[in-house]
């Protein structure tokens, strides 16, 4: 995940400093660091917020679309 710094510089969450222990969040020295690191890593994955039912529904729609396309071309 990229965050903007001053004057357009780019910074990863690896350079963030924990307000609880003043250590780098990437090291996970305290429970606050570890929780923040876990939350930021989940945000990097675009499918992290999808539930299993949503994934099943998307897969079903994809299969139906492919079946319809195959039926129309035959």
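^ structure tokens above, recovered residues below v
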């Amino acid at each position: 995940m990229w965050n903007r710094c001053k004057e357009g510089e780019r910074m990863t969450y690896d350079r963030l400093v924990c307000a609880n222990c003043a250590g780098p969040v990437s090291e996970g020295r305290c429970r606050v660091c570890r929780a923040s690191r876990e939350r930021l890593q989940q945000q990097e994955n675009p499918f992290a917020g999808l539930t299993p039912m949503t994934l099943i529904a998307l897969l079903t729609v994809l299969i139906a679309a492919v079946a319809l396309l195959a039926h129309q071309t035959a």
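The first strand starts at residue 2 and ends at 4.
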